[in-house]
Design goal:
CATH topology of one domain: Cytochrome Bc1 Complex, Chain D, domain 2
Order of helices and strands: HHHHHH
Distance between the termini: 94 Å
CATH architecture of one domain: Orthogonal Bundle
Number of helices: 6
CATH class of one domain: Mainly Alpha
Strand content: under 5%
Shape: elongated
CATH superfamily of one domain: Cytochrome c-like domain
Largest sheet: none
């Protein structure tokens, strides 16, 4: 390569570097990011009760569904289940996903799906309990309120009719569905 060709290549590279640096300086002046005084986010945590004062048990803040189950629309519950299907399977022998498989969930012991790693909060809550109709109702109402510390990220189902339809659908996901409550 002769020196004239070398000079052309070198000037092309040098010109490109100059253009890139100029664009960098211009973009920095147009889009200046302020550095915060303190890095990170402040996370506010409620203080834990010391146990000195008695807490009043007001009971659940959700409506019961037992009376609605017999007339609940299973097809509507199946539609509502689509919100759940990204994390849960609904088929017999289905594998766990982000959440446990839900086949046969009604009246199954809480936190008992084989091969699923439950949160410590749910394991503690589960001791001696089953997924009864009202347990499912409360959990589907607001999982993080019903079982403090659960890792389920779902926000909950507000409408009592929708929860009843979903629980009726979940009841149908079994070889022999659990009997309806009296």
């Amino acid at each position: 390569m002769d020196s004239f060709e070398f000079n052309k290549v070198f000037m092309a590279i040098l010109g490109t570097v100059f253009i890139v640096m100029s664009l960098s300086f211009i973009s920095d002046s147009l889009f200046h990011n302020k550095v915060p005084e303190q890095q990170g986010y402040a996370v506010e945590v409620a203080e834990a009760s010391t146990g000195g004062e008695a807490e009043e048990d007001t009971g659940p803040a959700f409506e019961p569904i037992s009376a609605m189950l017999a007339s609940a629309d299973i097809a509507e519950g199946e539609k509502i289940f689509k919100k759940c299907s990204s994390c849960h399977t609904n088929v017999d022998g289905g594998a766990n996903k982000v959440g446990p498989a839900l086949w046969g969930i009604v009246e199954r012991p809480i936190a008992s799906a084989d091969g699923f790693s439950y949160s410590g909060a749910l394991k503690t809550y589960a001791e001696g309990k089953t997924w009864s109709y009202e347990e499912l109702n409360g959990f589907l109402w607001k999982p993080k309120t019903y079982v403090k510390g659960t890792s389920m990220g779902f926000g909950g189902i507000k409408k009592v009719e929708d929860r009843a339809a979903l629980v009726a659908y979940l009841r149908s996901l079994a070889g022999t569905p659990a009997p309806l409550p009296q």
